[in-house]
Design goal:
alpha/beta; three-stranded parallel beta sheet; two-stranded antiparallel sheet; 5 helices; 5 strands; disordered N terminus
Length: about 160
């Protein structure tokens, strides 16, 4: 989260070391969700680009971890007609793990990325991103839930 506030070394006229100090202070005093709202407000339209950079820069490959692979194997073992997985992750690595496992097991099912309560057609797997989706490739879907304000709005759209 600290890196979010340092947009090209500039934020509200601060030099890079001041910006880094401000980012550190934001996280330590306001927590990650409070700092997320500060970053969103401070960066304005540059927020999405900075968030993407903070999440994915410096990483060469994006491979599913052991938890995603275990969930994919569990799906294949249960082999239900309709399957719905819920995640708060912003990436689509769970979908990658499911596709890999389906291919390994020679199963022909479609994996969908959803951020809403859309029904799942028979024979498909849905991965619902409860806090939005923001992939390494830059695909953004749904509302990204990052801040205190986002959590309130997610639960009650009339809040604040």
């Amino acid at each position: 989260m600290n890196r979010l506030l340092v947009s090209g070394g500039q934020i509200a006229g601060l030099d890079p070391s001041e910006a880094q100090s401000f980012a550190t202070w934001s996280v330590s005093s306001e927590g990650a969700t409070g700092a997320g709202e500060i970053a969103r407000h401070a960066l304005g339209e540059a927020f999405d680009d900075e968030l993407h950079r903070a999440l994915y820069s410096g990483l060469d490959t994006f491979l599913p971890g052991s938890a995603a692979e275990a969930l994919a194997r569990l799906y294949v073992e249960r082999s239900e007609d309709v399957f719905d997985l819920l995640t708060t992750n912003y990436d689509d690595l769970l979908e990658d793990a499911l596709r890999h496992e389906l291919k390994r097991q020679s199963l022909k099912k479609r994996v969908r990325k959803l951020t809403d309560d859309q029904d799942i057609p028979s024979g498909e797997i849905a991965v619902r991103h409860l806090h939005g989706l923001f992939t390494a490739g830059g695909q953004k879907q749904g509302t990204l839930v990052l801040s205190d304000r986002d959590y309130y709005i997610m639960q009650d759209s009339t809040a604040w």
